[in-house]
Design brief:
Order of helices and strands: HHHHHHHHHHHHH
Helix content: 55-70%
CATH topology of the largest domain: Serine Threonine Protein Phosphatase 5, Tetratricopeptide repeat
Radius of gyration: 25 Å
Number of helices: 13
Shape: elongated
Strand content: under 5%
Number of strands: 0
Number of domains: 2
CATH superfamily of the largest domain: Tetratricopeptide repeat domain
CATH class of the largest domain: Mainly Alpha
Structural class: mainly alpha
């Protein structure tokens, strides 16, 4: 039955295109009534394209463009890396490594929409390409604003990469994929699996502070408050995580009715935070920066600022019966996070 509906429409579209080539352009008619935009079923929806600066030349010297792109990337010369990666993909359009390098450079330059397409093309050509899997998992788990669809996609990429890295015996990749899985599972609220993946990462890298932080978040959500307290205390001397650790310790103290101690931790978090917006209900936009290839970076994870789940029992109540102590930092929106820049 569908052809009976679409056949006349297709014929009408063909007639419209033919008439458009022969009919004169009508003069605009002025009216006090604003025009109504009609839906045109015969053409694709158009959208304004952002201005794109032309790529520079690839100065590969004696290297091939792909090797040059990697060298430029490692030197944090991301525009040059993008130029060489783009040249390589033009020469070798079916090489997934070229598209993965191009995607990494696009992420570094903040062009996340184009990076998604580049990673998709790399993985369409080679679904088991570890570099592309790691970059795509990092993009969806860390750099892009969080929502359930992106977090689920990050889990698919990181879990597949984790399985492949274990098969190849690459312990460093296993640690990095396990960390990204822990982040994504925490974002999705699957605290048990987040805890297991964080533990897996810590077995291979006991000094991995990102994994220790994700483990603390999972313990908090699992109502294991004593262990969570120890986990966050261990991060108080770490410059990367101490602001967030103070914030989480404030939530734990507040839950126990230790409101002065909670306020002290929240004040420390505000003072130490390099991203004050996080402690003011941050918006979830990733900051500019680039992860090294085969490297996962920390982010302001989901779970930051949340009370423990209701299954943990009611928290202590103040005499005022207010939900929080006046003046303490507000919580971010659910799923809100920020990605710190890469040094």
């Amino acid at each position: 039955m569908k052809w009976r509906v679409w056949a006349p429409l297709a014929l009408a579209c063909a007639c419209q295109r033919k008439q458009a080539a022969t009919e004169p352009i009508a003069q605009p008619v002025t009216s006090s009534v604003p025009p109504v935009r009609e839906r045109n079923l015969c053409s694709r929806p158009s959208r304004l394209s952002a201005s794109v600066a032309p790529l520079g030349l690839c100065h590969a010297d004696l290297d091939d463009p792909l090797t040059a792109a990697r060298k430029f990337y490692d030197r944090q010369e991301y525009s040059e890396a993008l130029s060489c990666a783009a040249k390589w993909t033009a020469l070798m359009p079916d090489d997934p490594q070229g598209h993965s390098e191009r995607a990494a450079a696009l992420v570094a330059l903040g062009n996340l929409e184009a990076a998604q397409l580049a990673y998709s093309r790399a993985l369409a050509l080679a679904p088991d390409q570890l570099d592309a899997l790691l970059g795509a998992a990092h993009l969806y788990a860390v750099r892009l604003p969080s929502n359930r669809e992106r977090d689920e996609l990050a889990v698919l990429y990181s879990e597949k990469g984790l399985s492949l890295a274990k098969r190849e015996g690459d312990q460093k990749l296993v640690e990095q994929f396990a960390l990204l899985s822990a982040m994504s599972f925490n974002d999705l609220g699957d605290s048990q699996r987040a805890y297991e993946r964080a533990e897996e990462a810590l077995q291979l890298g006991p000094d991995n502070t990102d994994a220790r932080y994700e483990r603390g978040l999972a313990l908090f959500e699992l109502c294991r408050f004593g262990e969570a307290t120890l986990a966050f205390r261990s991060l108080l001397a770490d410059p990367e995580h101490r602001a967030r650790a103070h914030h989480q310790l404030g939530l734990l103290r507040e839950r126990n009715g230790q409101f002065r101690e909670a306020e002290r931790h929240f004040a420390q978090a505000r003072q130490l935070s390099a991203v004050p917006r996080y402690f003011q209900g941050g918006g979830g936009q990733g900051r500019a920066g680039a992860p090294p290839r085969h490297a996962a970076r920390s982010r302001w994870g989901a779970g930051n600022g949340r009370r423990a789940p209701l299954r943990c029992g009611p928290p202590e109540q103040r005499p005022s019966a207010l939900p929080r102590h006046p003046g303490l930092v507000p919580w971010p929106a659910p799923g809100g996070r920020l990605s710190p820049g890469v040094g």
